[in-house]
Write a structure and sequence with these properties.
Blueprint (H helix, E strand, L loop, with lengths): L1 H11 L6 H8 L3 H7 L3 H24 L4 H18 L7 H6 L10 H21 L4 H25 L3 H23 L1
Helix pairs in contact: 1-2, 1-4, 4-5, 4-7, 5-8, 5-9, 7-8, 8-9
Length: 185
């Protein structure tokens, strides 16, 4: 149910993802929602957001074993493939949650911020390990995440992956340049 919720959020957003939609998508019986998620829909949305954030973090940590450029490239690859497979409907569930402030109930932006902070920390650490200075590594980590997420949004809006591909090229160039500077010092 958590995975189904995350997948639905990335296409529909959190507000438009209902318990009924999750049950249909996951094939889970109705009683299991309240058994596993006594906090109801809000708990399910929080856990799906945490899951999505941890999923990407795990992918990043694994990709960084081959270096920062490979990690950036794999991040863009995974989401480009997802965009293509869904007709440019599937974005990042963390962004979907981040932009949906609620007037009633739990505000999921805190979970989104934690996910972004975790990704930023992973990027920052890997860049520092590759020789980029601490302050520069943090700025570059923020640039990678914001460029990626912004390009993903534009690709969905345009129904075309070219914004994501353009951002990939620019980010790879920028990260490569910073890594070269770090290696030469």
């Amino acid at each position: 149910m958590i995975l189904s919720t995350a997948l639905l959020i990335r296409e529909r957003g959190a507000r438009a993802t209902s318990i009924d939609d999750v049950l249909i998508h996951s094939g889970a019986p109705r009683g299991s929602v309240y058994h596993h998620f006594p906090g109801g829909r809000e708990q399910l949305l929080r856990e799906a957001t945490d899951y999505a954030g941890a999923y990407v973090a795990g992918k990043l940590e694994q990709a960084f074993e081959d270096g920062p450029l490979a990690a950036v490239d794999r991040l863009f690859d995974e989401y480009a493939a997802s965009l293509e497979a869904t007709g440019h409907r599937a974005g990042c569930p963390i962004v979907a949650v981040a932009v949906e402030a609620t007037e009633d109930g739990h505000d999921l932006r805190d979970e989104a911020a934690r996910a972004f902070d975790r990704w930023r920390s992973i990027f920052r650490s890997a860049l520092q390990d590759a020789g980029v200075g601490e302050g520069r590594a943090d700025g570059l980590a923020l640039l990678v995440i914001s460029s990626f997420e912004g390009a993903l949004i534009l690709s969905r809006a345009y129904g075309d992956s070219s914004p994501l591909e353009s951002a990939r090229a620019e980010v790879l160039d920028r990260v490569g340049s910073e890594l070269a500077k770090g290696a030469s010092t």
